[in-house]
Each structure stands twice: as structure tokens, then as C-alpha cells.
Design a protein that fits this description.
By secondary structure, the chain is an alpha/beta fold. It has one domain (25-215): P-loop containing nucleotide triphosphate hydrolases (Rossmann fold, 3-Layer(aba) Sandwich), CATH 3.40.50.300. The chain contains eight helices and ten strands. The strands form two sheets. An eight-stranded mixed sheet has the order 5-4-6-7-3-8-9-10. A two-stranded antiparallel sheet has the order 1-2. The protein is globular and about 45 Å long.
Length: 243
Amino acid sequence: MHQSAVLDDLRARIACIEGTSARHGVVPFGVTELDARLPGGGIATGALHEVAGGVELSDDASATIFIAGILARIEGPVLWCLRWRDLFAPALHLAGLHPDRVIHVEAGSDTNVLLAMEECLRHPGLAGVVGEVGKYSTTASKRLQLAAEGSGVAAFVFRRAAKADQMAEGTAAVTRWRIAAAPSEDLGIPSLGRPRWRVELERVRGGNPHAWIVEGCDAQGRIALPAALVDRPATQEDCQVAA
């Protein structure tokens, strides 16, 4: 057997054992600095990802748009499961995710949100499934990861208003992110600059944590590094952060 065939067979066997994104696709951010930190060069479909905002409402809003921007670039409907319907759907359109693509599931409790997510993840025709919860167990995360692997659908657990100690709990998520609002570029006119976020990759399977300042999603759901920050020397803000 040729060496290339041996390597291909080995990769396939490892993918079956690990259940990683090798069996499914990825959604790249289109930002080299971020994609290089992620196995496969982007957000893996067929996998569970955990996203948190912060104690400020602006942080949760930024995290919502962050998720919407990823899902906007995957074909198919999106199931958004929440305890109560307080999602401002028109805001998703700002990131390219049209409200007509989003099906809301109002579940009433964290337990019901997780059950709804697991059921929805069994349907391969979806772009993704989002579940907003306060907290969830390692066992629940494993069930969601297995369901996502089986269907190839991207899964996002959104921890709204989550504190750092709450995010320290172990889960089966392939990546864990924290999104916070950051000061926009000063253009001399309030609220005119493109929103900026601090995007923190707190955990990634097979990789190292990192943090960036990025410009928020455009109308196609894409983020970008601010032009003023691309070529400047690295600062503390860009340095690796602890998990």
C-alpha cells in the first residue's frame, strides 16, 4: 500500500475514534489569525461549541451576533432554543441571518432547552442548533456532542450572563468562547464606528487558548481584524490567555 493511502486510512480511523470535524465540514472565519488556531481551519460542523457573553447586556448581545454570523454562512434553517422568547430576531439580520430562517423553540427551563437541542440535532437538514442555558452538566454536553456528530449539524450552547467560574466546568464542547463588547474606532461621531469585540478562545480541543480584538459581523456574517491592529506589534490584549 502506498504511503499516501496508508496515511489516508490512518486519518479515517482516527476520525472515527475521536469523532472530530474530519468527518464533517468547517466554517472558516476568513481571518487567518483565528482560523489557524482551530482544527480544520474553522468552526467545525457536527460538533458542540460553547459561547458565553458576560455580565453586561452588551456582551450577551455581542455573543448572540457572533453565533448568528457563523450560522448565516451555513445553508438551512436554524433552531434557536431558549427558556423564554426574549431574542430580538431583527438583530440577527445585521449578521446576515435572516429571521425567516430561524425557528424559535421556547422551552421554559434549562432542562427542556437541552432536551429540545438534542432532539433537533438529530435532523441533518439544519444549519445549526442553538440552546440558551444558564448551566448544564458534563453528561448533557456529551449527549449534545454525540447528537451533533451523528447528524453533522453545528451545535452551540449559549451561556448568557455567565461568570468566569461558571465557565470553568468541564464539558465535551470542541471549542469554548467568551465574547465581550470592546470600544469601537473613534470616528468623531458617536455610534458610527463598526462594533468591536474581544473574542476569547478559552478552550479548543487540540489547540491553545488565545484572544483577539475584532470588528463585529458585517451583513454577510464575517468578522475582521481592525486595520489599525493588523500590522502593529502584539500587545497584552492579543497575547495568549489562560483557559
